[in-house]
């Protein structure tokens, strides 16, 4: 984190008295906070490829459970994440599973369902009276889901929105996107001969060429001779560009309102409920995909441009500040966790930025005193927009319909 050196550097220029005052206030602020509510949004663990390119000698049958499935490595990653969550929030959750305290929702996909279940096995092993089979240190914890066709929260991107489709094609035609794509034009031309995949769209290159090669390398398969380190780097960069252009590059705000912003709205609603005296809920967990984690981060304007790694977990913590009962909740600590090695995956100092933005906007929202409009968080503009800026899940299941409603 760059926060400490920054603070140190500017503090060094301040007169001593001011510096003391500053550190005193900071200390007081930190000491007075009490954790109230936690939201976690994570990606599933290591998986087999979802599909592959025509010339791939490694077919679906090479994977023990076929395509798109959580592997044992993926289970290990989520077990590790569950242990981390237990360590971080064990005291807060009072160590044992209480149904009114936690809610878990997953997309209706094998790998996300299985990831959340593995995670929960580590987070809530039975203790004391909840032990039901002494030979099995596990208890069932419910994981909720809805069919993919009805999922207007986690199964991003929501592609059946005509306005989003327009924005996507505008993005692909934008100068900025073309500028970023240009250096790779010749490289893309070489791919059909090598892979047998003839599509030129970046999402296809990501999901049908880069992703299967990546999965195979993780699992120690021998890659085709053309998949050199240099080729893999270019493929990864194109995949990152694909993800970035999905939610960003052009009209990021409007796209986010139709995509990750919907989840932001839901999370803020939960936080608002968490400030009520009657609230018992302490933890909400969402088990989803790289496109969900990045879509959320794009809507928060804190995305770092890296493909979210397996079991990457975006944490949001809501605190109350003692002595300010009128404005009980005012601070969020977003962070990203990934298994093994680094505790956080590399990111710019956006954690601080997001903390500031979210706490500002959450305060405004909580202070409205009536059912608030969902808001959109952005770095450059006032986030409180007017009705056209409502976060709206797009499509017929929702009360908020995107401007160009689908049939
Ligand atoms: C934790 O749970 C125990 C047993 O149910 C209870 O006695 C204790 O008060 C709880 N602690 C907190 C901080 O809620
Ligand atoms: C791949 O090989 C490395 C080095 O031998 C090993 O540590 C790793 O566990 C293997 N990966 C898998 C998924 O088996």
Describe, in plain words, how this protein is organized in 3D.
Its EC number is 3.1.3.2. Keywords: Disulfide bond, Glycoprotein, Hydrolase, Signal. It holds the Pfam family His_Phos_2. Belongs to the histidine acid phosphatase family. It is a single chain. The termini are far apart. The protein is of the alpha/beta class. Helix 8 packs across helix 9 (229-247). The chain has helices at 3-12, 16-31, 72-93, 110-123, 162-173, 175-181, 185-195, 202-218, 229-247, 252-258, 260-274, 290-299, 350-367; strands at 33-43, 102-106, 283-288, 313-321, 329-332, 335-337. One 2-acetamido-2-deoxy-beta-D-glucopyranose (NAG) binds at residues 73, 218-220.
Oligomer: single chain
Structural class: alpha/beta
CATH class bucket: Alpha Beta
Shape by Cα distribution: globular
Order of helices and strands: HHEHEHHHHHHHHEHEEEH
CATH superfamily annotation: Phosphoglycerate mutase-like
Helix content: 40-55%
**Strand segment count:** 6
Beta content: 5-15%
Number of domains: 1
| Gyration radius, rounded | 23 Å
N→C terminal distance? 48 Å
